[in-house]
Amino acid sequence: MRRRATAILILTTAFLIFGAGEERERAQAAQPKASPPAIAGFHDAAQEEKWEKLFLAIPDPKQAEEHLRILTSAPHMAGTPEDKKTADYVAQQFQQDGLQTEIVAYKVWMNYPREISVDVVAPEGVHMHGPTREHVSDDRFQDDPRVVTPFTEYSPSGDVEAEVVYANYARPEDFNKLKEMGVDVRGKIVIARYGQNFRGVKAYIAQEHGAAGLIIYSDPIDDGYFKGEAYPQGPWRPATGVQRGSIGYMFEFAGDPTTPGVASVAALPESERIPPEKSAALPRIPTTPLSYQDSEPILAHLAGKVSPRDWQGALPFTYHLGPGPVRVRMHLQQDYQYRTIWDVIGTIPGSQQPAQWVVAGNHRDAWVYGAVDPNSGTSALLEAARGLGELLHAGWKPKRTIVLGSWDGEEQGLIGSTEWAEQHASDLAKAAAYLNVDVAVSGENFGASAVPSLKQFIRDVARAVPSPKGGTVYDAWRKAPEKRMGPTQEPSSAALSGSQNRPPAAEGSGPQVGDLGSGSDYTAFLQHLGVPSVDIGSSGPYGVYHSTFDDFEYFRKFTDPTFAYEQEMARVYGLEMLRLAGADVLPFDYAQYGKEIETYLKAAQAKAQTRFGQDALDFAPAFAAAARLQAAGTAIHKVQKNAQPREAELNQVLLGAERAFLLPRGLPNRPWYRHAIYAPGVYTGYAAVVIPGVNEALDAGDRQRARQELMELTSSVNLAAKMLQNFR
Ligand SMILES: [Zn+2]
Q: Which site among 38, 72, 244, 600 is 20 to 30 Å from 215 CA-CA?
């Protein structure tokens, strides 16, 4: 998976900030450099630098290419025999690298498509029988019979026939607009385009508005010819290309929809699962994806009002809203079963703090071949693992335990990572960090998202890795921050997850690091268990997301022909592990956390004042808590810098502070999400909502709940501050 939404605010200000940052850098460069350079958290930077140098020499473009070729040699959707083969390959690599390796199976509720069809039944003379098989003039992988027919995971089966209404991106504001324009979607089949939000959110909102069914299609304005040449001439989506994907309501909880909070081990009896028909994570209206080739006859023949101008896509006619006269029949027969999926876990035990795990994970399952999504990440993970293996040979020992996770079932609903995290919840309560990679490479622009305490950490790591463009990854990142490719394209890299309600000014200089929303495997670690997390990726033009064309041939042609960016990402990823597993003192920056919370509060306060009047909500205690956290973070930062006798205790405190953000009762109406500062938005799904309890209550106009949530937030921030202050 891995998409992200709006980051407009962040990027406009990024511009201003860079200027200032560059000045400072020049000033710094003029001063003589101390040698060796300090590495945050290490007392013996010279020794660490030696290990890092040795490590950075290992990841290799040719080897990365070979991993990717093998991993993507067949379609390998979660739960298939081909998926198991990729698990065996990863396990074999981990073993060769000297890691303790196991394959862990879970039994989870999933559907494959049995029969999927969409037909235009009216008006007379208009014909379409889809989905058309994905096909272009030239691609040697496209005709494999194992390519799964386009479908959406967790759509119910169903047979619906109805008039069609066009609903733009199927956002709440789009349905409001339809209502305003007098178009009733009840009982209709809604057709909406991909983009702007998570597809499960589209299904959720369409369901809330009483639609009978939902078709989600890829408009060429968003990731097709409007952007540039389509595949195989260029990297953008061709006419028959379809975006598969899950519509599970992951904003309720992630993982197996029948086991929130519980691991779906094979032995778990059915009596301890939620019956699927009662699961809050499962959609109720039939939903299926289409290419623009198949959608064109539907959209072209809709009558009714002309759509608002910004609803117009790139197909060559004026879009109308309907309803009708086009009628469509959706016939979806899903094959729902409990199926087995396989995580691969590789472990290097820590020599000094074995209980403080540093977990690094990437998903391995793909909708089809998954060259970019996710196996560019798996290839980087394997090259990083090979580097760790070489270090082990040379006598290196990490202080903390490194756990590598090759997750399965991510595409269906972050299942492999979530079930494993739920199974190891008590171990993970002590974990130092979770490091995610989903799409490692879809282009040349590095980006990252992280909790505030690790934002400087990832910048520091980027400074230590060379970029294929010359200089360091950090230099290239500063010059060419990962940018959105257009108004609605959601490139598939880790980077800058945009966030709602997030004022952009809190970060100071340096390239912007985004907030963690959802859409990838850090969700259970951070938002359910409070493990400090980082997500990285390198992105670029990528229009074949979740289609059969995301294959090895595409990757070599358009994504990373020399595999230099694969090498870069393996280096960055491995260095993250090395530093967090080896640091004497964890390099967490809580002053930054306090600062960011303060900016979140300011935005929420402004919103509350607009909604409820000047003094309707008392933000003073919350601001005081954020200030206290900032002060405590600044004070402990000084302690972190110096060697001192109670290091073990200090590390415990630094780890504990992030856990203070876990709300005892979780978020209102979705208790699986427990983080007081970050959650996926219910109405965005990928983008982070910051201080979600407060912001979502404000958005709902619920003053009472907002007050309650503000109190909960305040006490969690106070608790974090107190933990830091108590260390003296
Ligand atoms: Zn992915």
A: 72
